[in-house]
Amino acid sequence: MDTQAWQRLARELAKRRAGLRPEWADRTVFARDNGLSYRSLSDLETGRRDNYKLSWLTKVEAAYRWETGSIQLILDGADPIPLGEPPATAEPEPAWDEELHGPHPPLRDGEALRWRHAGDGLRRVEFSVRGVWAEKRVPADEPWERVVPELRWELMQSMAEATQALAQSMRPPE
Q1: Which of these, 124, 132, 135, lies nearest to 160 by C-alpha position?
Q2: Contact between residue 8 and residue 74 where contact means Cβ atoms under 8 Å apart
Q3: Cα 139 off chain centre by
Q4: What is the distance between the alpha carbons of residues 121 and 166, in angstroms, rounded to a whole number?
């Protein structure tokens, strides 16, 4: 175990987590919201051990909004690659108008909803279940009781398609 590399990773993880969302400065909240084991995450963020399954590290990278392979990059001394990071010249997106976390009707435990006005009578809505996000523009007067089930369905379809694509990619060649 290269202790220095794992300690560097631990520092990068803690810094990234706290920078993603203010409430995620609390590791417990971050682990819960992203469906990660608190104990394993704590071990990783403190550099306590180095024997993790690749599939779990990939899930961690997604939770930290990093491209797959970013943890290895950090261990090798390079910088992680943020997911979909906008170009440096892009205008920053405005802050969210409001955010709700379940359980809070119509949200269930582990779900989150945030939105901001997008103009033209629309609002941009992001819905997450354990850290997996779906996004949609909806009429500003659309009730949450209609929006949330639609977003749940879209997120489920998207996850099913991703799972199917992953399963196909793992099939051995014929």
Answers
A1: 132
A2: yes
A3: 25
A4: 38
Give Cα 61 distance to the centre of its chain. Answer: 8
Domain boundaries, the chain: 3-75, 98-169
**92: helix, strand or coil:** coil
**Whole-model pTM over 0.85:** no
Which positions ≥6 away from 154 have C-beta within 8 Å? 134, 136
pLDDT tens string for the chain (174 positions)? 678 889 999 999 989 988 888 888 899 999 998 889 999 999 999 888 888 888 889 999 999 999 888 999 999 898 898 887 544 444 556 677 888 888 888 888 888 888 888 777 888 888 888 777 778 888 988 888 888 898 888 888 888 887 887 778 777 776
Question: Distance between CA atoms of 33 and 131, rounded to whole angstroms?
Answer: 6
- Give the C-alpha distances (Å, rounded to integers) separating 163 from 18, 157, 166: 29, 10, 5
Name 138's bridge partners: 123
User: What is the domain class of 3-75 according to CATH?
Assistant: mainly alpha
Cα separation, 74 vs 69, in Å, equals 9
Q: Which two tokens stand for residue 1?
A: 């175990």
C-alpha Rg value of the chain to the nearest Å = 18
Q: State how far the Cα of 142 lies from the Cα of 124, in Å rounded to an integer.
A: 12
